[in-house]
Amino acid sequence: MNKNWIYKGIYCLIFTTLIVSCRFENEEATKSVEVEEISNKQKSKGKSRYFDFLPSSTTNQIVKHNGYILSYSEENEQAEWVAYELKKSELNYNNNDFKRPFFIEDPKVSSASADWKNYRKSGYDKGHLCPAGDRKYSKSAFDETFYTSNISPQLHDFNEGVWNRLEQKVRYWAGKYDGIYVVTGGILDENLPTIGYEDVTVPNYFYKVLLDENNGEYKMIAFLVPHQDSDLPLYEFVVSVDEIEKRTGIDFFPKLDDADEVRLEKNSDYKNWSFK
Fold first, then answer.
1. How confident is the prediction for the chain on average, in pLDDT?
2. Exposure on the CB side of residue 228, measured as CA atoms within 13 A
3. Which of 34, 81, 184, 250 is 20 to 30 Å apart from 163, CA to CA?
4. pLDDT tens, 180-218?
5. Number of helices and strands in the chain (H, E)
6. Pairwise CA distance, residues 101 & 114, whole Å
7. Residues assigned a catalytic role
8. Residue 126 pLDDT > 90, yes or no?
9. Apex CA 268: angle with CA 264 and CA 269, to 5°?
10. How far is CA 161 from CA 10, 27, 166, 225, 241, in A?
């Protein structure tokens, strides 16, 4: 074969390879620019989709459900915290009249959550931490709130009284502020009374920590409520998040920017939250 034809063949192969390579690089560059543009557009809407709002866990037993996430304390047979985002759109389903299921053990708790029979004749309600009323957007999300990992012993007057008022106020703020993050639980101190054959702890105090994010601007409020009914206005129970952290050993919102976290968690001023 003539050498000139061989050289021409090699040149054509090299040229074709270069064209394909350049085209691939251009396509990848275009995709990279498109992804960056989408990311920037998403970030311009706020930080919430990139912000991990979960608290720290002192028990290292994080359980994830579709409607909420919790940190389970086997020692106390309940969650040390339950966390979820309550969106404004989820309030549109409050008219859903789902049948209340039976309370059952949480299949995702590796150490097994408490048996509901611990509450029988105890004098305490099975008090929801993530309220069933906050998860009415689907039957499955509603049913998840009846896992025993999501309840704590609560006096009936407290459960139906001041605690219920606070839950309703949280829904009000979720609508007013276009969604909020909620973290809630009981203060699981040592030497507390217990109920049932599994010694389910009865907290003396319950808390809620709320975080609102609007285009990268945050505000926070925390409530520490004694386990008894009260007619006091809800703002009387406002404390700093720092105080609840000292009481629980939990680090709330550790993924926040450090400066924001320090500023927000030491503040107990509630003027940025509507108590109407």
1. 86
2. 4
3. 250
4. 999 999 999 999 999 999 999 999 999 999 999 987 789
5. 6, 11
6. 17
7. 128
8. yes
9. 95
10. 85, 61, 9, 12, 23
